[in-house]
């Protein structure tokens, strides 16, 4: 429920442990709403089970939001931002050595150590995204939730970010759950897909789920995945194509 409205219904899906699970669906389908319910930020009816946990107990969850609204004029540095939730003493006493090391460690993991002394408000979209990922990793998450990680980042930046997530997931063994609008990102990186349109349309491995039929039900268009035959050596890609049905068949 949001603002008194019933947003989602009949949502029954699984996020396999250790997977990279992608939620795909049209604008307004309820993807962010589902993530917020999972994060415990919205009321819902029904059950969300975390296997191995007592009822009502959640694993450690890290969250990378779709966007961050903050005053870009603030003089806070990236290092200070990351230690805000760690350090109890006021920041004007400086950042304590142990928290500075912890923040630096996470920045190094997301390949953004060079941003530590930069002003948060001066970062580009892609740089801010890495800092938000470092912040989420500070929780040592068992479940990392990302809302459209490739949004606002160019194709190359989005690809590199997803590659980074793949290697962090393998190293740190968290489960990754992300909302994505980019079907090529999903075919490259997801191991499990949930198609959502106010309820679950289909779920399973990308090859089984991203069929023209399921994409048609989810997006209301005739869509398919095209695998180009001739790409530069070593490069594979899947791109989504969509077209309206021919007029004489509509
Ligand atoms: N605070 C709110 N009060 C009432 N309705 C809301 C609220 N926030 C979102 N909604 C509605 O809930 C529905 C689902 O929104 P949600 O943000 O979950 O969709 P989404 O699938 O993440 O969309 P998008 O791809 O555009 O980000 C939409 O119809 C939206 O208008």
Describe the structure in your own words.
With about 250 residues, the chain is of the alpha/beta class. The chain has one domain: Rossmann fold (3-Layer(aba) Sandwich). The chain is about 30% helix and about 15% strand. The chain contains eight helices and eight strands; from the N terminus they run βαβαααβαβαββααββ. Helix 3 crosses helix 4. The protein starts with 19 loop residues before the first strand and ends in a 7-residue tail after the last strand. Bound molecules: adenosine-5'-triphosphate (ATP). Adenosine-5'-triphosphate binds next to helix 1.
Average pLDDT level: 83
CATH level 1 class label = Alpha Beta
Total tally of structural domains: 1
CATH level-3 fold name = Rossmann fold
Helix content, binned percent: 25-40%
Say which molecules are bound, naming each kind only once: adenosine-5'-triphosphate
Sketch the major β-sheet. Answer: 6 strands, mixed
Count of beta strands: 8
What would you say the CATH architecture is? 3-Layer(aba) Sandwich
Order of helices and strands: EHEHHHEHEHEEHHEE
Poorly predicted residue ranges: 230-250
Strand order of the largest sheet: 2-3-4-1-5-6
Looking at CATH, the homologous superfamily is P-loop containing nucleotide triphosphate hydrolases
Contiguous helical run count? 8
> Radius of gyration, Cα only, in angstroms?
20 Å
* Gap between N and C termini: 35 Å
Report the β-strand fraction as a percent range: 15-25%
Approximate shape: globular
Keywords: ATP-binding, Nucleotide-binding, Transport
GO molecular function: ATP binding; ATP hydrolysis activity
Pfam families: ABC_tran (PF00005)
Protein name: ABC transporter
């Amino acid at each position: 429920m949001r603002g008194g409205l019933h947003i989602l219904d009949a949502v029954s899906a699984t996020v396999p442990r250790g997977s990279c699970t992608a939620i795909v669906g049209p604008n307004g389908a309820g993807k962010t709403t589902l993530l917020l319910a999972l994060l415990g930020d919205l009321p819902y009816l029904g059950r969300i089970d975390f296997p191995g946990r007592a009822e009502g107990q959640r694993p450690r969850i890290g969250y990378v939001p779709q966007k961050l609204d903050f005053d870009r004029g603030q003089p806070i540095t990236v290092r200070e931002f990351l230690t805000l939730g760690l350090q109890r003493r006021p920041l004007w006493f400086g950042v304590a050595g142990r928290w500075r090391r912890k923040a630096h460690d996470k920045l190094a993991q997301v390949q953004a150590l060079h941003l530590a002394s930069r002003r948060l408000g001066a970062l580009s979209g892609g740089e801010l995204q890495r800092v938000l990922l470092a912040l989420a990793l500070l929780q040592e998450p068992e479940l990392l939730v990302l809302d459209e990680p490739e949004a606002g980042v160019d194709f190359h930046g989005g690809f590199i970010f997803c590659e980074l997530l793949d290697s962090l997931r393998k190293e740190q063994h968290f489960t990754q759950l992300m909302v994505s609008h980019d079907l090529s990102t999903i075919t490259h990186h997801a191991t499990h897909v949930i198609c959502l349109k106010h309820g679950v349309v289909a779920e399973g491995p990308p090859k089984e789920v991203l069929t023209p039929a399921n994409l048609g039900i989810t997006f209301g268009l005739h869509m398919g995945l095209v695998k180009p035959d001739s790409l530069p050596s070593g490069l594979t890609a899947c791109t989504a194509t969509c077209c309206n049905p021919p007029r004489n068949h509509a």
